[in-house]
Amino acid sequence: MAEEPPAGADPSLRQLLSRTLPRRAAAAAVGTSGLPAGAPTRVSAPIDPTFVRLEGPWRHREVSANGVRFHVAETGPADPGGAPLVLLLHGFPEFWWSWHHQLVALGEAGFRAVAVDLRGFGGTDKPPSGYDLPTLAADVAGLVRALGEEQAVLVGHDWGGVLAWSAAALHPRVVRGIVPVSMAHLLRFKAAILTQPRGQLRASGYMAPFQLLGAERRLLDDDAEAVGALLHRWGGPGFPDAETEELCRKAAQIPGAAASAMEYYRGALRSLSAPPLRANALTRRLRRPVAAPVLQLHGSDDPCVLASTARGSGRWVSGSYAWHEFAGVGHFPHEEQPGRVNDLLIDWLRALPA
User: Fold this and answer.
1) If residue 123 lies in a helix (H) or strand (E), which one and from where to where?
2) Segments forming the whole domain that contains residue 28
3) Is residue 3 part of a domain?
4) Which neighbouring-strand residues pair with 259?
5) Taking a C-beta distance cutoff of 8 angstroms, is the pair 170, 321 a contact?
6) Residue 97's domain is classified under what CATH number?
7) Alpha carbon of residue 208 to chain centroid
8) What is the pLDDT of residues 155-201, one digit of tens each?
9) Cα–Cα distance, 206 to 60 (Å, whole number)
10) 8 assigned to some structural domain
11) Does 7 map to a domain?
């Protein structure tokens, strides 16, 4: 396991990622990120954000928390306290639909399952700021309370996994347990970037073009074709299906959604590459061992967050910790193998202490 670099000795993550993007190769790097190189070809028409209220065995509503109006889809008992709350947090480049398999299974199993469009995505507000880690973690804590509960299990994929880890460290009282999917603990992720130039740093090179001005416009070229390219590149064989690709491409074209998505990457780098005093304060809080139970799920072939990186996350967990790796699966285990994920998740949830 790679050790966390000593405080004050590590260079800026922004600087490290920029080394994967030499100026002479900028156009090529944009291409490898999934964003089209060259001049934009066609700007997509805006999509009405209400399109995300897709019909199905779930209920749609809005919830206000931390100064933001969130869109959520919900299954299971609607009343607070009627069943344990499982809050489902999606990643990039998706929206609440990422969890449609789990919404159905969890509701049928008797849980109160709520899939949220994160700040800036889908049918949720898209403010110009608030994409730093402390604010995003506060969004999650506020959502738990706004849903009428004192605690929730946080199931997070990709950026949702970042928020699950962060909320468990920064707001432990609202977290009953976490299930990070395809995401390492942030300090493990940072350590791997800093110490594995041919491993996690190279795998994270797709983030570098997201720092460039105009990245959001390129994401939207040709009806957000780049979103589909990212899903195909990051997923395992057969992913995504045509419906998921179409819906994610449409969701990216909601006004403000693409710009907000890029702010996640810019805000995270600002948070972890901040001036020493501020960065060290966040790092100290993230170093707090996660006392809540953790079930970590990961695909063996994830090209974004390497399985070897994610495996080291247990170092920051003091509570019960379980790891499950899906052979031959890419960055989206809950969608690539939903049945297996549902079974593991429900069995783990039922075994949690009351």
Assistant:
1) none
2) 13-351
3) no
4) none
5) no
6) 3.40.50.1820
7) 17
8) 999 999 999 999 999 999 999 999 999 999 999 999 999 999 999 99
9) 33
10) no
11) no
Whether residue 5 is contained in a domain is answered as no
Task: Tell me the C-alpha distance between 327 and 92, whole Å.
Answer: 22
The pLDDT of residue 7 is above 80: no
Which is nearest to 132 in space by CA: 175, 166, 155?
Answer: 166
* Total domains in the fold of the chain: 1
Is residue 14's pLDDT more than 70? no
- Token pair, residue 7, equals 């405080």
Cα dihedral: 242, 246, 248, 253 (round 10)? 170
pTM equals 0.91
| Strands of 112-116's sheet in order across | 59-65, 68-75, 112-116, 85-89, 152-157, 175-181, 294-299, 321-326
> How many Cα atoms are found within 13 Å in the side-chain-facing hemisphere of 17?
23
User: Whats the size of the chain, residue-wise?
Assistant: 354
In the chain, DSSP assigns E strands to 59-65, 68-75, 85-89, 112-116, 152-157, 175-181, 294-299, 321-326
